[in-house]
Amino acid sequence: RLIITFFSRLFVIFCTMPIHEYAHALIATKLGDQTPRLAGRLTLNPMAHISPMGAIMMLLCGFGYAKPVGVNPRNFKDTKKGMAITALAGPAANLLMGFVFITGSVFMSNLVKIPTIIHYAIYNFLMFAGVLNVNLAVFNLLPIPPLDGSRILQLLIPAKYYYKFLEYERYVTIVVFILILTGVLSKPLSIISGFFIDLFTKIAMLPF
Which of 67, 92, 144, 164 is 20 to 30 A away from residue 138, measured at CA? Predict the structure, then answer.
């Protein structure tokens, strides 16, 4: 089980996190901002997106993040709407992938009458990958830099306070990392993630 968990988290780091960031880059580009494309972020190459700290957090805790995609809001026709849609694109992509993986896991568990060790491994891999994608979506919606929620926060508070907040980005990241490791923040995040996981599981079970 520990081996499956480890490889599921590696899969998220090298496969689904890049899709998360690619979703940001793709939507920003579609909305008129070419900054992600020019910065080399409009790609599924994981090396263009991986953040060392975010990857370590994912491996240790199941929550993490990738390197944020830079955008220029002034290139959007509607600045606030463009930023909101771009910020939500990544978590939305993770929730979609989470639903697909959990559905695959549920279908396998119900369709395979006599499971083998291989079926069991695939089932657990799909479920872990689904859970980690949901965790990633929920974690990235926290309103702290460099997470997606901080971009949404930018729309809710005056610019001078937001940029002042960004000055302490490095320290905020370290504090959040400590809070997750000590379980202070992971519990409420797990409750929110559990809601989506339970919802996706119930939807996937409808045909059965």
Answer: 164
Active site residue 167: no
Question: Pick the catalytic residue: 16, 17, 21, 73?
Answer: 21
Tokens of 150: 């901080």
Q: Which pLDDT score is estimated for 117?
A: 84
pLDDT digits (tens, 9 = 90+) for 100-138: 999 999 998 888 777 788 888 888 889 988 998 898 899
d(CA 17, CA 32): 23
